[in-house]
Amino acid sequence: MTDSDFFDSLETRSADERESAQFKSLGTQLSIAKSKSSAYTDLLRDVDPSTVVDRSALAQIPVTRKSELIQRQSKDKPFGGLVGGQLSDCRQIFASPGPIYEPEGHKNNYWRLARALYAAGFRRGDIAYNTFSYHFTPAGSMLQSGALELGCAVFPAGPAQTELQIQTINDLRPNAYVGTPSFLRLLIDKSRESGNSIDSFTHALVSGEALPTALRDSLASDGVNVMQCYATADVGLIAYESSALHGMILDEQILVEIVRPGTGDPVADGEVGEMVITMLDNPLYPLIRFATGDLSALMDSSSPCGRTNRCIKGWMGRADQTTKIRGMFVHPEQVDRVVKAHPEVTRARLVVARVGHNDEMTLQCECGSSDASLGDAIAESLRAICKLRGTVELVTAGSLPNDGKVIDDTRPID
Question: Are residues 331 and 318 in contact, defined by beta-carbon separation less than 8 angstroms?
């Protein structure tokens, strides 16, 4: 291995060196959060930042759950009192479904995605073809900022207009793809159907949905070396793959805990639990013990690639019923809003499945009508509220399981 194999020297620190440096940064982050964020002034009122010097002390700080953000932000607009600054400190503001508002600061590579892109083979001079959305949600901006940090040229394609995209790819010959893996598969397949095959992509960083082994292998057979990363609109980069494909390596600028779902209690290494993230270098949005709602587990060994940080097993499901479909989070609260928009519906259940390599969702609605026009109206509400298209199935009253589920994610993890 050489220095050029790594984004920076932080990736090859010893475990003790990393832990010491991270907790030193944490003390500063806690002080900023407590003094500048009204929410953390309250949440950290009994916490002396100078005493939080190890993980046992960190575990005593209250957890802030992603599922609470909608309620917090509705009471204290726009950011729920969690931002440690003013609106003028933001370069951009985004809205994820919910809605949940997220700030982007002025710092280059604000979301820290450059590290994951570098591990996936992105380098200065690449043309990064970015198919993540630039509308409302931050995904497009997140990956663009990281690619620009590396010196890549970025084409902001977004996720629509397949035929035009195929023409553009053939004109520009980009060598690097950014987006969901299923959309890359779709672009390649559609290009072949049209007789205008695209073959310029050599490497890709994907996110927003699962990457099954069969899909990774099929893309590799088309000459695309695909790596994936795990990031959220609140935290930015959390973990990423390297060429060793040994789990997902944790980012260097966050502290990660795995806790028992519904609590703030860390679990033993290897045990599946909820991911809790503490930011170490973001005074604008100083999230402390932020529970993402995602499940994972710490692995017992670091990656053979030479990066020494801990690895997680990747995304292993949701600790709550919120789920991610085609790169977009869907919350139970949104399903409830769809139901309330149609008085004929007494109860509903959103079933998420994978058909081939694509995510599909069906809203099963209990009602006393089988009118096709009602189904069409509900489908339009589903699209408008969740920002995703899905089918609607009208079922008889009392036919849905009485198990409290609003969202039933039936997709296999792999």
Answer: no
